[in-house]
Amino acid sequence: MTTSPAVPTVDVHAHVLLPEVEALVADLPGHAEARALDARRNGPAALAVSGPMVRERIPRLTDVTVRLAAMDAQGVDVQLVSPSPSHYHYWTDEDTAGKLYRLANEATAAHCAAAPDRLRGLGLVPLQHPDLAVEALDHALTQGLLGVELSSHAPGRELSDPAYEPLWARAEETGALLFLHPFGCTLDERLDQWYLSNTVGQPTENAVALSHLIFSGVLDRHPALKVIAAHGGGYLPTHIGRSDHAWSARSDAGAGCAHLPSSYLKRLYFDSLVHDPHVLRELIRVAGADRVLLGSDFPFDMGTEDPVGALRAARLPEADFHAVRGGNAAALLSKE
Question: Boundaries of each Amidohydrolase-related domain copy (predicted)?
Fold first, then answer.
């Protein structure tokens, strides 16, 4: 684990907006229904705030010069850039999904290529069409991207679905990064006020998705898989004791994975975006200082404008601080 103060500061949770992706799907059957579902899940008050918020941030999401200036202001040397999760469009048919992942991968790669020393990228895979997942990952890698971003589930499929085994195998074989970033929560209208769709929905989806990977044995079958969970892994790391108890006490809970659930946290990576220094310290305690990476959710309002300051507020030992600030990610992004 690199702990030197000289290592670069690396933010692994930063997004790019791809207008060409939205243009591709804008007039397709199913798009209106998907937008209506999103509106139902978020509620009108949230949409009224989110629209202007995103519009104000479009320069930082699309213009590399503006992005780099913002990074300089934050003290961030390198960003791992992933498409906005709004680009998943898991409702699209197979033909459109193939066009979409290629367009997203190429556009993200082009954005990062404008500043290759400071920007590294991730592509997309169409989880709703598992047969396309491996070719989408391979396409991302051929574009010079380091892996792909994926949501917590696709319609009718959890990440434990056997149909994704080829994707996990290929990601493990290539050393590709998998950035687990939910978009949308199936609790639907129960979360349509006070932005609960995000504040409760995102950490819930993170916890459910990671539990599927753990309890189904995916991480047993693919021990070298490089999964980075956004939002500090949601509720799971701070409530992992309940999972351990179920695994020990119940035959159904313990049937799918070989080891205590908490042990798998040390095989995963987590970003630091938990908005509470005490929670961050607990995440580091259960996962290890070598498994937590700086994350800001750049440039959205549910992120942090000062990721290094948020990390410093946790009052970590100096070596752990520098590891999370950039040492861990620098090693991961270089595939050493």
Answer: 10-333
Contact of 137 with 176, CB cutoff 8 Å: yes
If DSSP codes are grouped into helix, strand and coil, which group holds residue 307?
A: helix
**Type of residue numbered 131:** D
Per-residue tokens: 117? 């020393």
pLDDT of residue 6: 87
CB of 289 within 8 A of CB of 324?
yes
Average pLDDT over residues 199-219: 98
State the pLDDT at residue 3.
58
What DSSP assignment string belongs to 61-92?
Answer: HH-HHHHHHHHHHHT--EEEEEE-GGG--TTS
CA of 183: how far to CAs of 176, 180, 197, 202, in Å?
A: 21, 10, 10, 7
Amino acid letter, residue 47: L
Q: Pairing mode, if any, of strands 153-154 and 157-158?
A: antiparallel
Q: What is the pLDDT of residues 247-262, one digit of tens each?
A: 999 999 999 999 999 9
With residue 15 as reference, give the H or E element that holds it: strand 10-16
Assigned fold of 10-333: TIM Barrel (3.20.20)
DSSP string over 275-300: S-HHHHHHHHHHH-GGGEE----BTS
pLDDT tens digits for 52-94?
999 999 999 999 999 999 999 999 999 999 999 999 999 999 9
Q: What is the token pair recorded at 302?
A: 């549910």
Task: Say how far apart CA 87 and CA 4 lie, in whole Å.
Answer: 37
Confidence of residue 274 (pLDDT cuts 50, 70, 90): very high
Residues 6+ apart with CB under 8 A from 105: 123, 124, 136, 139, 140, 143, 145
